[in-house]
Write a structure and sequence with these properties.
Elements (H helix, E strand, L loop, with lengths): L8 H13 L1 H6 L12 H15 L6 H5 L12 H12 L5 H29 L6 H22 L4 H18 L4 E2 L4 H7 L3 E2 L3 E6 L5 H14 L4 E5 L4 H13 L3 H6 L4 H15 L3 E5 L5 H15 L3 E5 L13 H19 L2 E7 L29 E6 L1 H12 L5 H14 L2 E8 L8 E7 L4 E3 L10
Parallel strand pairs: 3-7, 3-8, 4-5, 4-6, 6-7
Antiparallel strand pairs: 1-2, 8-9, 9-10, 10-11
Length: about 475
């Protein structure tokens, strides 16, 4: 029988690197970050400092940790350089929970080995205690080790409750959940929650219905808060996306930016804005026909460099099926299932843009339904939330265009009156939500010139 290891130094490095790069991992598994389960002396000291900072409600960050550490007297290791190495080369966010399980296992094996040696000495030592009494103490000790190990496991009730409490406490301290706030309060209301990490969100709209514009606004606002953002764009180049972000933020039409039709004052605004944009943790990559494996490689590389964040995919139909012979329903289920698993493994939140089925516009009530998503109703199972963006103005304008000369005057007047009522507006609909009633709808202002959406509840839009 092979001997089991009593330590896992590479695992310790990977877990600490993940927690340093993304403190959310520490908060999620705080009860399991115990100094005694780490063999490395510096590792144990780092974990002790993390817990000390957490107890005093301070940020779990490298600068704060370094203030409590000194150069290791035995090997002269510099904590500053070592922390940097852990964050850049060793971090493994996806396996952090499993590695913590293994570290707890190796700690338990060390305890049992130490206890076994002590028990052997005890059994050969002359003592007033009977053999039964000494055995009772041995059983109690082993039982305590087993209980500690069980409570450390990621699936145990104690560990889950501890993680829940840590999340609630952290949310209370910072005033919001451990998620990404929506940039529009209307989105917050219809979903009942923030953009929570490890979840998959679907954004449904008609062709040219504004889904890319809404996504880019959310991406820019998210990056402004310091949360990393990866945009995988199948329709626009990175340059076009950045230009649209600038147009949305500055209120200068994209066409004017492309043609250089702006004043000197506006050019100064553009320069200032783009300098600020370079400092934000946002990356935009062009995709053509990627598989989910290609997307997984891009997302995991991004997470290794920047940590977990928002991943936006524009749009779902660009992603090819693993089995090119698969039907639409089977292939889409595979794609969305893979993306859901990817978000769970990396801790990112995924925002997947989808064009809705054309049949929706043929219904008497053309407002989007959950069955309109790419792949049909069954494909919705992989999503935690599905939001629809509906611009009735476009539908009514198309009705009038197609009915010109053939429509009765009463019908024409009725549609025209409705068109004037919804002009410059868009509707956000929660088709599938976890924390609220479905089909809640909110209207927002639609500023088509700048391809942006503005809250109907605020006087000014929230941008960079």
């Amino acid at each position: 029988m092979a001997r089991l290891a009593l330590e896992n130094i590479p695992g310790e490095r990977a877990v600490l690197g993940a927690a340093l790069r993304d403190p959310g991992i520490f908060w999620q598994h705080r009860a399991r970050f115990r100094p005694e389960i780490f063999v490395g002396k510096l590792h144990s000291r780092i974990v002790a400092v993390m817990n000390k900072l957490a107890d005093s409600d301070r940020e779990i960050a490298s600068p704060a940790i370094l203030g409590f550490l000194a150069v290791d007297e035995d090997d002269g290791v510099s904590p500053e350089g070592y922390l940097a190495t852990l964050m850049t080369e060793e971090a493994d966010n996806a396996l952090a929970a499993d590695l913590l399980d293994d570290l707890s296992e190796t700690w338990a094996r060390r305890q049992m080995a130490t206890f076994g040696e002590a028990l052997l000495k005890e059994s050969t030592k002359d003592s007033r205690d009977s053999a039964i009494e000494r055995l009772d103490r041995a059983v109690a000790t082993v039982k305590a080790i087993a209980e500690t190990l069980d409570s450390d496991r990621v699936g145990s009730a104690d560990a889950a409750i501890d993680r829940m409490i840590a999340q609630v406490v952290k949310a209370h301290q910072v005033g919001h959940s451990d998620g990404i706030p929506w940039f529009l309060p209307e989105l917050q209301r219809i979903t009942g929650d923030d953009l929570e990490f490890s979840r998959l969100i679907g954004l449904l709209a008609d062709t040219a219905g504004g889904k890319t514009s809404l996504m880019l606004q959310q991406a820019a606002k998210t990056a402004e808060t310091g949360v990393p953002v990866l945009v995988l764009s199948g329709d626009q180049t990175p340059e076009e996306c950045y230009m649209q972000i600038a147009s949305q933020a500055l209120g200068i039409e994209s066409a004017a930016l492309r043609k250089g039709q702006f004043t000197s004052a506006e050019f100064s605004q553009i320069e200032t804005f783009t300098r600020g944009l370079k400092r934000l943790p946002i990356e935009i990559r062009r995709i053509f026909r990627p598989s989910t494996r290609d997307i997984s490689n891009m997302v995991r590389s991004f997470v290794r460099r920047r940590g977990r964040g928002l991943v936006a995919i524009d749009h779902a139909k660009r992603v090819v099926f693993d089995d090119r012979r698969a039907g639409i329903s089977e292939g889409v289920n595979q794609v969305f299932g893979d993306l859901k698993a990817l978000m769970g493994a990396t801790g990112c939140v995924g925002l997947v843009l989808m064009q809705r089925n054309s049949e929706g516009n043929r219904r008497d009530d053309p407002r989007p339904m959950l069955g309109d998503i790419y792949g049909g109703m069954g494909a919705a199972e992989s999503f935690d939330t599905v939001i629809a963006l509906y611009v009735e103005e476009r539908f009514l304008a198309l009705q009038m265009k197609n009915g010109a000369g053939r429509m009765k005057s009463e019908q024409w007047d009725r549609i025209n009156a409705r068109l004037n009522n919804v002009r410059g507006k868009a509707e956000l609909i929660g088709l599938k939500v976890r924390f609220g009633p479905p089909d809640l709808a909110e209207h927002v202002e639609r500023e088509a010139r700048f391809t942006r959406f503005v809250s109907s509840r605020a006087a000014q839009p929230e941008f960079l």
